[in-house]
Amino acid sequence: MAKIILTGDRPTGKLHVGHYVGSLRRRVELQNSGEYDEIYIMIADAQALTDNADNPEKVRQNIIEVALDYLSCGLDPAKSTLFIQSQIPQLTELTFYYMNLVTVARLQRNPTVKSEIQLRDFHNSIPVGFFTYPISQAADITAFDATTVPVGEDQEPMLEQAKEIVRRFNYIYGDTLVEPQILLPENKYCLRLPGTDGKAKMSKSLNNCIYLSDSSEEVRKKIMGMFTDPNHLRVEDPGQVEGNPVFIYLEAFSTDEHFRQFLPEYENLQALKDHYSRGGLGDVKVKKFLYAVMEDVLTPIRQRRKEYEKDIPAVLEILRQGSIKAEAKAAATLNRVKQSMRINYFDDQDYLDEQAKKFAEN
Ligand code: ATP
Ligand code: MG
């Protein structure tokens, strides 16, 4: 069976370093491994509209931002198909058929949707489109016959839902859809990177992000202002590393090489953590090191972004070509789906003959 990747992001803002460690970095590695037959990367504008219906301009403006973030991280249009969700009408059609295979109660149990509803203060005014977006996500995944979906931990319930839809579809209509597997980051600190404010998740909606496109100065300010251990008041006090976002970022980004380069008095992260826990190590020193690490990661990304920004029409053309290619793939899947459901009337000569005959006999 072909190995196929599908994943994507909502164009509700620029991408941040949580996206990078949660999914983007992995995508680029998988792309360059040469082990995958097809790779689809989707800018999920239709999904972004499910909770931004009153602000389509935000979504519209962020398409190019997300595309620039993709390209600057090293996604290569020669190897990965970059496309825009709303340009693939087959995804909406698949969603409509899959809706019949899912109950309202099942959707209500989805923990990610539950917490997102709370976060957005929807109360009883939940848009139906938002409530059902896990179904549309199942359509996105299955339309491309994706075997592998590299995403952050918050997407686990979506993948479970997609698998259930696949099983139910195949059970009712015969083997048609491919069951996808989630691919989570191996480093547990990357599953859900916290915000600079110490909140559980760095998220565009929470305003606690370091963006891939932030300037060096912005990154410095954000890191120096980061939440750490609130009880670590004096340098000599013992500090807590667990749950301390500065150390979590170091777990997610730093390498032993970074220590050799920027902080040679410590052999590795463990040595730095030990000193912090013992006491005698100030937050400022740790933050300065984190800043050096982040700059090492972000500088090449920023440089590539500058290059792509010089030719925006070329970036838009990449999305146009990618969308054409993605539509062809989704159309083939939709044909297969309609054939399995036996609603492909005009392509089904037996059906046409049978209906004609039925009435001719009367
Ligand atoms: P929004 O607030 O609009 O939902 P978001 O920041 O959650 O935005 P998404 O576009 O919903 O971003 O998520 C895109 C991908 O990035 C998903 O695979 C998600 O799991 C991953 N991701 C998002 N935030 C983080 C994070 N803080 N840590 C790890 N992965 C993340
Ligand atoms: Mg999200």
What does this structure look like?
This protein is mainly alpha-helical. It has 2 domains: 232 residues, HUPs (Rossmann fold, 3-Layer(aba) Sandwich); 93 residues, Tyrosyl-Transfer RNA Synthetase, CATH 1.10.240. Helix content is 56%, strand content 6%. Helix 8 packs across helix 9. The model has no long low-confidence stretch (mean pLDDT 95). The site of adenosine-5'-triphosphate has 18 residues, from helix 1.
Strand and helix map with partners:
Blueprint: E1 4-9, H1 17-33, E2 38-43, H2 45-49, H3 56-73, E3 81-84, H4 89-98, H5 104-108, H6 111-119, H7 128-131, H8 133-143, E4 148-150, H9 156-173, E5 181-183, H10 216-224, H11 245-253, H12 256-262, H13 269-278, H14 283-309, H15 312-341, H16 349-361
Parallel strand pairs: 1-2, 2-3, 4-5
Using the CA coordinates, give the radius of gyration: 24 Å
Give the count of helical stretches.
Answer: 16
**And the CATH topology of the largest domain?**
Rossmann fold
Basic shape = elongated
Compute the number of structural domains: 2
List all distinct small molecules, including ions and cofactors, that are bound in this structure: adenosine-5'-triphosphate, magnesium ion
CATH superfamily of the largest domain: HUPs
Order of helices and strands: EHEHHEHHHHHEHEHHHHHHH
Instruction: Give the distance, in angstroms, between the N- and C-terminal Cα atoms.
Output: 48 Å
Q: In percent, how much strand structure appears in the residues?
A: 5-15%
Q: Widest sheet: strand order? A: 1-2-3
Average pLDDT? 95
Question: Which regions have little confidence, pLDDT < 50, spanning 5+ residues?
Answer: none
Please estimate the helix content: 55-70%
Note the main sheet: 3 strands, parallel
CATH architecture of the largest domain: 3-Layer(aba) Sandwich
Number of strands: 5
Determine and state the CATH class of the largest domain. Alpha Beta
